[in-house]
């Protein structure tokens, strides 16, 4: 294995593109080093992206925020303006691992690890976040929802790395929330999860809604049919019940010791309902 | 494998070492530098026994490559006492018998110190969440929580 601390995104992309063997991108390392130790992967080249300018920065941009690919969970949690604008995204990131893992883990790494249960991903999908990708052919932008393609798999091409994730501006009466179910209080992986992002009008009626579910399909999934049911309502109980049903209808979870298909499906709907209420209250709505 | 030359600062002292590209910071500390305070429990970032700080940030040294230490400031349990004068956390762990086998203790001390630097007066709940990534299979945690709170009170001058 060779270790390269790249100093530009172009250098990282070129090195990853030129390597014929297995490669890994190293940001926080909380997944990559576990893979190395387990012996499941034996990469020829590991490219550390933390020395590339901008990778460790959160910058205000067009009313939103651009978060470098190597910004840690702890750094995201300490950024008050970002947490105020996108509380659902930041609370999801901060649920990853322990204090020690938070010191290293990154939102982009959670996305690229491509676990259907990644805690950072549903809120990013609900937020319509956009990944900026650097590759051998230059830069391109891609909606976060299109990055994961299956468990452990992404749509990134050889030599491509995500350099940052952009969270857009949002109007005053807008907010988001993320909830997951785990059988304990800390240090666990979601059995099912849900993120909801809402924009309200001045009267407290939902103008736009996005819902994403985690751990109930091969990738995190946006549930547009469920979100559409919320638009034009003030989240009355009947609407929420229909929304939860619409969420359940698209769940195709695995069945394992951590949760049966029926349990994960019902939980996803319940979490979506509860997350919608939290996002609604955060956005200043009252039912 | 070609070894990598790394210059770093550990507990305020300049250090240089050679390490393999896939060697963890924990293995470098223990096997190359003789700093055996950080322990390997799980090796996968779950147990916290290898906790150190890198540039002031609490991390598991088993999840950091030695090569990543280039130019960094690392603090380990070995730098916690001032000569023969134990840190208040260390003293209260002894006084309160907050350890049995002791394997988790260096990691818990390093983690607790990092919390008290950020929050000198944590609630028990904040402390338990902060230490959720430090596993102890002996004590049942209560004595650990009490010892950290006693040290925190002393450090606040209460």
From TrEMBL, chain A:
Source species: Defluviimonas salinarum
Keyword Nucleus on entry: no
Gene3D superfamilies per UniProt: 3.30.465.10, CO dehydrogenase flavoprotein, C-terminal domain (3.30.390.50), Uridine Diphospho-n-acetylenolpyruvylglucosamine Reductase, domain 2 (3.30.43.10)
Protein name (database record): Xanthine dehydrogenase family protein subunit M
Annotated ranges, domain FAD-binding PCMH-type: 1-172
Annotated keywords: FAD, Flavoprotein, Oxidoreductase
Highest classification ranks of the organism: Bacteria, Pseudomonadati, Pseudomonadota, Alphaproteobacteria, Rhodobacterales
InterPro entries attached to this UniProt entry: CO_DH_flav_C (IPR005107), CO_DH_flav_C_dom_sf (IPR036683), Diverse_Substr_Oxidored (IPR051312), FAD-bd_PCMH (IPR016166), FAD-bd_PCMH-like_sf (IPR036318), FAD-bd_PCMH_sub1 (IPR016167), FAD-bd_PCMH_sub2 (IPR016169), Mopterin_DH_FAD-bd (IPR002346)
From TrEMBL, chain B:
Alphabetical keyword list: 2Fe-2S, Iron, Iron-sulfur, Metal-binding, Oxidoreductase
Annotated coiled-coil segments of the chain: none
Keyword Metal-binding attributed: yes
Pfam families, sorted: Fer2 (PF00111), Fer2_2 (PF01799)
Keyword ATP-binding: no
Ranges of residues in domain 2Fe-2S ferredoxin-type: 4-80
Listed SUPFAM superfamilies: 2Fe-2S ferredoxin-like, CO dehydrogenase ISP C-domain like
Listed name of the protein: (2Fe-2S)-binding protein
């Amino acid at each position: 294995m060779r270790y390269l601390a790249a100093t530009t995104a172009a250098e990282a992309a070129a090195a990853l593109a030129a390597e014929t063997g297995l490669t890994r991108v190293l940001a926080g390392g909380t997944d990559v080093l576990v893979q190395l130790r387990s012996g499941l992967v034996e990469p020829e080249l590991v490219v550390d992206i933390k020395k590339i300018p901008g990778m460790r920065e959160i910058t205000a941009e067009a009313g939103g925020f651009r978060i470098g690919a190597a910004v840690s969970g702890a750094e995201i949690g300490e950024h008050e303006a970002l947490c105020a604008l996108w509380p659902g995204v930041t609370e999801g990131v901060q649920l990853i691992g322990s204090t020690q893992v938070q010191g290293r883990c990154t939102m982009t790494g959670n996305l690229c690890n491509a676990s259907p249960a990644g805690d950072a991903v549903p809120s990013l999908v609900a937020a319509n976040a956009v990944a900026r990708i650097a590759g051998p052919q230059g830069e391109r932008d891609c909606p976060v929802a299109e990055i994961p393609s299956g468990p452990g798999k992404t749509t990134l091409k050889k030599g491509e790395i995500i350099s940052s994730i952009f969270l857009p501006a949002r109007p005053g009466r807008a907010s988001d929330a993320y909830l997951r179910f785990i059988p304990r209080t800390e240090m666990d992986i979601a059995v099912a999860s849900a993120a909801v992002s809402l924009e309200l009008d001045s009267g407290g009626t939902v103008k736009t809604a996005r819902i994403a579910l985690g751990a109930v399909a091969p990738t995190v999934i946006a549930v547009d049919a469920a979100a559409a049911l919320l638009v034009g309502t003030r989240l009355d109980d009947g609407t929420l019940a229909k929304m939860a049903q619409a969420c359940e209808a698209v769940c195709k979870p695995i069945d394992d010791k951590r949760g049966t298909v029926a349990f994960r499906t019902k939980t996803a709907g319940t979490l979506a309902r509860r997350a919608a209420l939290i996002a609604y209250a955060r956005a200043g709505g009252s039912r | 494998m070609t070894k990598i030359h790394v210059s770093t600062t550990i507990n305020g002292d300049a250090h240089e070492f050679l390490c393999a590209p896939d060697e963890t910071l924990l293995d470098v500390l223990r096997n190359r530098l003789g700093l055996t305070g950080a322990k390997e429990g799980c090796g996968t970032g779950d147990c916290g026994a290898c906790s150190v700080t890198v540039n002031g940030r609490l991390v598991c040294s088993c999840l950091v490559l030695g090569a990543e230490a280039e130019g960094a400031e690392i603090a380990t349990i070995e730098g916690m006492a001032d000569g023969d004068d134990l840190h208040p956390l260390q003293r209260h762990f002894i006084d309160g018998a907050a350890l049995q086998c002791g394997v988790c203790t260096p990691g818990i001390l390093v983690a607790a110190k990092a919390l008290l630097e950020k929050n000198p007066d944590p609630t028990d709940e904040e402390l338990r969440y902060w230490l959720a990534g430090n596993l102890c299979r002996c004590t049942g945690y209560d004595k650990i929580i009490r010892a950290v709170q006693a040290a925190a009170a002393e450090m606040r001058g209460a």
